[in-house]
Amino acid sequence: MASAKNVTSRVVSYMKKNIRDGIWPVGSKIPSEHELCGELGVSRISVRSALQQFIALNILQSQHGKGTFVLSDDLGVFGYGLSSDKNFSDMKQMLEFRLLIEPEICSVVAQQITPETLDRLSLLLDQMKSEIGQGESFVRSDMDFHQEICDAMNNAVLKTVMSDVLKRKSERHIQLNNAVGYYGGIYYHTLLLDALQKHDGKRAHSIMREHLQKGIEDLEIGNEDGSV
After folding, report:
1. CA Rg value for the chain
2. According to the model, what pLDDT value does residue 225 have?
3. What angle do the packed helices 115-130 and 135-151 form, to 10 degrees?
4. Distance of CA 42 to CAs 10, 45, 153, 181, Å?
5. What does the alpha-carbon distance between residue 101 and residue 221 come to, in Å, rounded to a whole number?
6. By C-alpha distance, which of 78, 76, 2 is closest to 46?
7. pLDDT tens-digit profile of 123-149?
8. What percent of the chain has pLDDT over 70?
9. In whole angstroms, what is the distance from residue 186 CA to residue 146 CA?
10. Stretch 63-88: mean pLDDT
11. Phi and psi, residue 76, nearest 5°
C-alpha cells in the first residue's frame, strides 16, 4: 500500500502536469476536492495536502464559496529534478545530522520564542519568497531562518555548531535547490512559522522533521515530476 506522502506526491505531479500542459490555464477554476478524489482514486486528505502546497506557493488561490483558481503557471519553484551524475552524499549526511537535532530545537523554541524573533523569521520568509530562482540569495535567507531558530535557544555551543553545519557546502545547497526546487523551503517554512507563532511545540517538531525528511527523500529518489 502506498504511503500518504507518496499519494500526495502523485497528486502534486498530476496538478503540475495539468497546469504545465495548459489543461488548467491561469484564471481557470480547477476541479473540486471531491472531483479530484474521484478522478485520482485518492483520499481527501491527500488532495487537500497537495492543494495547500500550491496555495502556499501562490500558484493556486482558494476563494471561499467559489472554489480554487489558478493564479500562476510558473512551476519553476519545483525545480528540474536531480541529475544522476551529481553525488549529494555529503548533503544527505548533513541533513541526517540536522534531523537528529533541529526538530527538538523547534519544539523547545516554540515555548519561549519572542515577538522579536518571530518578526525576524517572518521577514526572512518574505525574503525567501522574493528570492525564488536566486540560488545564492535564497540559500542565505534559508540558512538564516534556521540559524535564527537555533539562536533562540540561547546556547552558545549549539549556536556555534549549527552555524558551522548550516554554512558548510553552501554551493551544494544551491545545486540542490536548483534540482529539487524551492517549494519545500517556502511551504515548510510557512507551516513552521505558523506553529512557532502559536507556540505549538509538538507541531513545530513534526513540521521540521517532515521538512528535513523530505530533503533526504529528494536526494535518495529525486523529485518526481511525471503524470499519474
Report:
1. 18
2. 40
3. 170
4. 10, 8, 41, 25
5. 24
6. 2
7. 999 998 888 777 788 888 988 999 999
8. 84
9. 13
10. 74
11. -60, -25
What's the pLDDT tens digit per position in 83-93?
544 556 777 88
User: CA-CA-CA-CA torsion for 36, 178, 76, 58, nearest 10 degrees?
Assistant: 70
- Confidence at 75, pLDDT banded by 50, 70, 90: confident
CB < 8 Å & 24+ apart, contacts of 87-93: 88/172, 88/175, 88/176, 88/219, 90/169, 90/172, 91/169, 91/172, 91/173, 91/176, 91/219, 92/216, 92/219, 92/220
Mean pLDDT of 48-70: 89
Average pLDDT over residues 156-161: 92
Helix/strand/coil for 154:
coil
Output DSSP code: residue 2: -
Report residue 42 as a C-alpha cell. 485518492
Q: For residues 59 and 89, give the distance between their C-alpha atoms in angstroms, rounded to a whole number.
A: 32
Alpha carbon distance 186, 56 (integer Å)? 8
Distance of alpha carbon 202 from alpha carbon 143, whole angstroms: 22
Q: At what angle do helices 135-151 and 170-180 cross, to 10 degrees?
A: 110
Query: What are phi and psi for residue 95, nearest 5 degrees?
Result: -65, -40
Structure-block grid coordinates of residue 152 = 533562540
> How crowded is residue 163: how many other Cβ atoms within 10 Å of its Cβ?
15
Whether the predicted pLDDT of 228 surpasses 60 = no
